[in-house]
Design a protein that fits this description.
Elements: E1 16-21, E2 24-29, H1 43-53, H2 62-73, H3 82-103, H4 110-126, H5 129-136, H6 142-166, E3 170-178, E4 184-193, E5 199-208, H7 216-238, H8 258-265, H9 271-278, H10 285-311, H11 325-347, H12 356-362, H13 371-392, H14 412-424, H15 435-442, H16 449-456
């Protein structure tokens, strides 16, 4: 390949300035705006163009051509001209407004039907008609906003893959639900270590499954094919193409949502308490007294379980910005299990201070003959509850895989994502492909708008 020629400032005397096209410096005539090849950056070829195409100007002074070059820079050609800068600002405004529209999960038509008329009215009233003309140039039609969102989504996905590539490990979270058109959708989030050594969480995929979650084999196959395809793309970026598909399921650790496991572990009521909870009891003397004292315990224990459930919801500790969610949630669970041990030891000596509703009845002489029976039922339930929590929350041996450090603790992100999906793809927009909209709406990665402007212009 021939070496690339460079532009010399002396070429202006032949009426040529430099312009960059496809990462290559080329000469451009300031008279006719013709762009020649890089190979034409020779005195003889530039002079020949001037004398053959513009013979009457061949003796013109350099100052004349300098003036022509300034006029040329005001045109759209070239990335250094004022016209380019003007168009770049208009495009940037279009991208940023489109991003605000999708972040608010509003219809794309709101840009042309609401936002732009509001902008024009306010600008004309405050800044005058000249400023209004500039605002009028901002394209915000339905199709334009959709195109801007698509480009931003692609750029965000491109950045995300690079970030995952640079992360030493990452974790995946998947969940499925149906949208407003009763179509089964798979939503996936990825957690990874960013360049600033903070753990970040981003939307990875929104994939239509084409079936309900009842078709387990089809569902698993769809997930596997997509993840295998995505991982193949990841390998192509990080390694070589011949490494694609060499390993599957190589020591992958999986975990279920902590909130779901906590709910399962809580289903440990003994028969007496379960009967009280589920059956309709006739309000009669001794039967009602037993029902009442059992119900008092259920009120207290469910209050404790509900508090734990609320603590496990959300994105974690705001001070740590979600960077250690699984450890925060595990600490809360371990603390709750320690409470169970404390409750057992206290109930064994008839101390019901942790169960205020039950304590108010136990201290009443009216229920004195039921205290021993209630004590046995409460102890039986608390011990069973402790065993179930130990079964659903086993310890990981020495954290042998580093990826466990960033495992997702709950499916909160997926649930939040599905809420956003229902807002974007509603009854009025039930045929919308919401994948790109949802990515831009939920992502914390900012699209590289200046780069997108250059690609368009």
């Amino acid at each position: 390949m021939a070496p690339k020629r460079k532009y010399d400032d002396g070429y202006i005397k032949f009426g040529f300035i430099a312009i960059e096209t496809n990462r290559e410096i080329r000469p451009q005539c300031v008279i006719c705006a013709t762009v020649l090849s890089n190979d034409a950056l020779k005195l003889a070829k530039l002079e020949r163009h001037l004398k053959s195409v513009h013979p009457t100007l061949s003796d013109g002074p350099p100052e004349f051509f300098m003036g022509k070059s300034e006029n040329l820079k005001k045109m759209k050609l070239g990335t250094s001209g004022s016209r380019f800068e003007s168009n770049e600002k208009v495009l940037s405004a279009s991208f940023k407004i489109s991003q605000l529209i999708v972040k608010s999960k509003k219809p794309h038509t709101i840009g042309e039907n609401v936002l732009k008329p509001c902008l024009l009215t306010a600008v004309e009233e405050i800044l005058g008609a000249e400023a209004k003309k500039k605002i009028q140039e901002i394209p915000l039609s339905n199709n334009t906003v959709k195109a801007r969102i698509d480009k931003m989504s692609f750029d965000i996905e491109e950045q995300l893959l690079v970030k995952i590539k640079n992360s030493p490990f990452f974790a995946l979270q998947c969940d499925e639900s149906t949208d407003v058109s009763q179509c089964c959708q798979l939503l996936g989030f990825v957690r990874f270590l960013d360049n600033d050594n903070l753990i970040k969480e981003e939307l990875l995929l929104l994939q239509e499954l084409g079936t309900t979650s009842k078709g387990t084999r089809h569902y698993v196959g769809k997930v596997s094919r997509f993840l295998y395809g995505w991982c193949s793309s990841y390998v192509r970026i990080t390694l070589r193409p011949n490494n694609v598909g060499k390993k599957k399921n190589c020591k992958v650790l999986t975990t279920y949502c902590i909130i779901h496991r906590q709910a399962l572990a809580s289903k440990t009521l003994p028969e007496e308490l379960l009967y009280t909870l589920k059956q309709a009891i006739k309000l009669k003397s001794d039967g009602f007294r037993k029902f009442e004292i059992h119900l008092a315990y259920l009120v207290d224990i469910f209050e404790h379980l509900n508090k734990l459930n609320l603590q496990l919801q959300g994105s974690g500790n705001n001070k740590l910005e979600g960077s250690a969610n699984i450890f925060i949630f595990e600490d809360k669970l371990r603390a709750f299990m320690c409470k169970i041990d404390l409750w057992i030891s206290k109930v064994e000596i008839n101390n019901y201070s942790a169960f205020q509703t039950l304590k108010s009845l136990v201290d009443n002489e009216k229920y004195a003959d039921l205290v021993n029976e209630v004590q046995q039922n409460v102890l039986h339930h608390l011990k069973k509850l402790k065993n179930e929590f130990n079964r659903y929350f086993p310890e990981y041996n020495d954290l042998e895989t580093k990826g466990v450090q960033i495992m997702f603790s709950t499916t909160y992100l997926c649930e939040q994502g599905f809420s956003g999906l229902l807002y974007i793809k509603n009854k009025q927009r039930n045929r919308l492909d919401a994948t790109k909209d949802l990515r831009v709406a939920l992502s914390s990665i900012n699209p590289r708008i200046s780069l997108l402007n250059i690609r368009i212009i």
